TrEMBL record:
One of its GO terms (molecular function) is histidine-tRNA ligase activity. Keywords: Aminoacyl-tRNA synthetase, ATP-binding, Cytoplasm, Ligase, Nucleotide-binding, Protein biosynthesis. GO terms for cellular component: cytoplasm. L-histidine binds at D87, L88, T89, R117, Q131, D135, R296, Y300, Y301. Its main location: cytoplasm. This is Histidine--tRNA ligase. It is found in: Cytoplasm.
C-alpha cells in the first residue's frame, strides 16, 4: 500500500441501518405472512418507484428553492424536482389517476417497500424504513373502512400477535371536525393544539389532556407546554367524547349527544355506527373498537381513521417496560386522487410499519432471528484437484442442496471447518488423496458433532473419536448429505411448526 494513500472512513449515514441475513430473512417471513392475509381479502400487488415528482407527494409542495423539508429531493436533467417517497399512499394516488381507465373500480391493491423521511433521527427512528400498505380506491362505503380494520387484525394475528395483545382503534376526522364546530374553534393554530392534546390521551390520561386543552401542562422535569386555552365548558365537551371506556354503542351515543348540532360530527357518527355494525356482525368487536381519541397526523385524511396498537409491554432503550403502542394505521382519503383528476375519488387504506413491528415481534419472541441453516461446505485438501471438489459441489446443488466450495487460501482442515461453523453449515465434506483412491469421502455432521462432543472432556479422545464424522462411498454423497440436511431442517423451528407454532 502506498504510504500517502488517503483512506476513506467507513461510516454509515445517520438515520440509516445496515441489515444482516437474519434480519432480512425475518422481514421476508413477515412480508410473506402479511401478503397471504391481504391476498385472502382479494388485494393484488402493485409496485411504484422510490422516487416521484415532488408535487405528487402533496404535503410537501415546494415553496422554496430546494424542497427538502421532510423529504429527500434532487433536481433531474430537465430541472424537475424529484423526491424519494415519504409514504406509499401518495404514489398510489398518482398511479391510479394515471392508469384508472385500465383498472377495475373499486381497485384493491397492496404495496410494500422502503420509504424515506428527511427528519431528525433518534432511538428507533430511522430515515429509511419499510411499510406494507393495502388500499381500496373507488369505494365510498364505510364497509371498505371496516374491512381494512378487520384485515389489519388478521395480519397481526398471522404474525403471532395474540388476541388481547393488540387493538385496532377507529375514529373519524369528521367527528374531530365536529368537535371543533361544537366548541367554536376556527383558528388553525388552536385547532392543531387541540388535536395534539387529544392525541396524547393514551400517554397522559384525561387529567393531562385537560391541562393541555386549558392553560397548559408542566411535566415531571419542569418543562411547560402551553395549552389550547379552552374554557371549562369546551374542555368538558371534548373529554366527555374522549371518555371511551364503554361499548361502541355507548361511545357513539355520546358523540350523537355532544355533537347534536354539528352536521359534520353527525356524518362522522353515522360512519362509525356503520363500521361498528359491520365489525360486530363479523365477530371482530373485541379487536376493532371505536375510539374518538384517534387523530392520525397526515393532513389528507377525510373520514374514518384507524390505528393498530400493541398492548404488550416491551422494554424500551432504557430497559423500562412500556406499552409499545402504534405499529400501523390509516384512514379514508377521498381527496388525494382528486388532486390529479377533475373529480374526487373515494379511497381508504391501511399501512403496517414493518420495521417498527419487526422490532416489537423480536422483543416479544414472536420472530425467529436465529441464523438460518447455511450451505454444505466442500473442503479443499489438495488445490490441484479443484475440479473433483467442484464436481461434488455441483452434484449437491443439482440435487437441490445448498452447497459451496471452500474458496479461501488455507489448506488447514481445522480452519476450513471453523469457516463452515461460521456459515452455520449442517455438514462438511472432506476428501484427501487416500479417500479419493478408495472412492470414499469423509462427512462431518457439524450439529451432531457438537452434541456428541459435549460428553468428551479429553482432547485426545475427541481427536480419536471424531464425533459426528463418518466415511461413505463417493456414490452415496448426495443421499447421506440429504439425510443430514433433512435432520437439521427438522430441528430448525422455522421448519418445525410443532416446535413453536406462534412464531413467524
Amino acid at each position: 500500500m502506498s504510504a500517502d494513500k488517503t483512506l476513506i472512513k467507513a461510516r454509515l449515514p445517520r438515520g440509516f441501518a445496515d441489515r444482516g441475513a437474519a434480519d432480512i430473512r425475518a422481514t421476508e417471513q413477515m412480508v410473506s405472512a402479511i401478503r397471504n392475509v391481504y391476498e385472502r381479502y382479494g388485494f393484488e400487488p402493485v409496485e411504484t418507484p422510490f422516487a416521484e415528482y415532488t408535487e405528487t407527494l402533496g404535503k410537501f409542495l415546494p415553496d422554496q428553492d430546494r424542497p427538502n423539508e421532510g423529504v429527500f429531493s434532487l433536481q433531474d436533467d430537465d430541472e424537475q424536482w424529484v423526491s424519494l417517497r415519504y409514504d406509499l399512499t401518495a404514489p398510489l394516488a398518482r398511479y391510479y389517476a394515471e392508469n384508472h381507465k385500465a383498472l377495475p373500480r373499486p381497485f384493491r391493491s397492496y404495496r410494500f417497500g422502503w420509504v424515506f423521511r428527511n427528519e431528525k433521527p433518534g432511538p428507533g427512528r430511522f430515515r429509511q424504513f419499510m411499510q406494507f400498505d393495502a388500499d381500496t380506491v373507488g369505494a365510498a362505503t364505510p364497509a371498505a373502512d371496516a374491512e381494512m380494520c378487520m384485515m389489519a387484525a388478521d395480519a397481526l394475528e398471522a404474525l403471532g400477535v395474540e388476541r388481547g395483545q393488540y387493538v385496532i382503534k377507529v375514529n373519524s376526522r369528521k367527528v374531530l371536525d365536529g368537535v371543533m364546530e361544537a366548541i367554536g374553534v376556527t383558528d388553525p393554530g388552536q385547532k392543531l393544539t387541540v388535536l395534539r392534546a387529544i392525541d396524547k390521551l393514551d400517554r397522559l390520561g384525561l387529567a393531562g389532556v385537560r391541562a393541555l386543552l386549558g392553560p397548559g401542562r408542566e411535566d415531571e422535569s419542569g418543562d411547560f407546554t402551553k395549552g389550547a386555552g379552552l374554557g371549562e365548558s369546551e374542555t368538558d365537551t371534548i373529554l366527555e367524547i374522549l371518555d371511551n371506556d364503554s361499548e361502541a354503542e355507548d361511545t357513539i351515543a355520546s358523540i350523537d349527544t355532544r355533537l347534536a348540532n354539528s352536521a359534520t360530527g353527525q356524518a362522522g357518527r353515522e360512519e362509525l355506527e356503520q363500521i361498528a355494525l359491520i365489525v360486530a356482525s363479523s365477530g371482530y368487536e373485541d379487536r376493532v373498537v371505536i375510539d374518538p381519541s384517534v387523530v392520525r397526523g397526515l393532513e389528507y385524511y377525510t373520514g374514518a381513521v384507524y390505528e393498530a396498537e400493541l398492548l404488550a409491554e416491551i422494554p424500551n432503550e432504557k430497559g423500562q417496560k412500556v406499552v409499545f403502542g402504534s405499529v400501523g394505521g390509516g384512514g379514508r382519503y377521498d381527496g388525494l386522487v382528486g388532486r390529479f383528476q377533475k373529480e374526487d375519488v373515494p379511497a381508504t387504506g391501511f399501512s403496517i410499519g414493518v420495521s417498527r413491528l419487526q422490532a416489537a415481534l423480536a422483543a416479544l419472541g414472536k420472530l425467529d432471528t436465529s441464523p438460518a441453516p447455511g450451505p454444505v461446505v466442500v473442503t479443499v485438501m489438495e488445490p490441484e484437484r479443484m475440479g473433483d471438489y467442484q464436481t461434488m459441489v455441483t452434484a449437491l446443488r443439482d440435487a437441490g442442496i445448498a452447497a459451496e466450495l471452500y474458496l479461501g487460501t488455507t489448506r488447514n482442515l481445522g480452519k476450513q471447518v471453523k469457516y463452515a461453523d461460521k456459515r452455520n453449515a449442517p455438514a462438511v465434506v472432506i476428501q484427501g488423496g487416500d479417500e479419493k483412491a478408495r472412492g470414499v469421502v469423509q462427512i462431518k455432521d457439524l450439529a451432531l458433532g457438537k452434541q456428541l462432543a459435549e460428553g468428551i472432556t479429553d482432547n485426545k479422545e475427541w481427536r480419536e473419536e471424531r464425533p459426528g464424522q463418518f466415511e461413505a462411498p463417493e456414490a452415496e454423497l448426495v443421499d447421506r448429505i440429504r439425510e443430514i440436511v433433512a435432520s437439521a431442517g427438522a430441528n430448525d423451528s422455522r421448519n418445525n411448526p410443532d416446535d413453536d407454532g406462534d412464531r413467524v
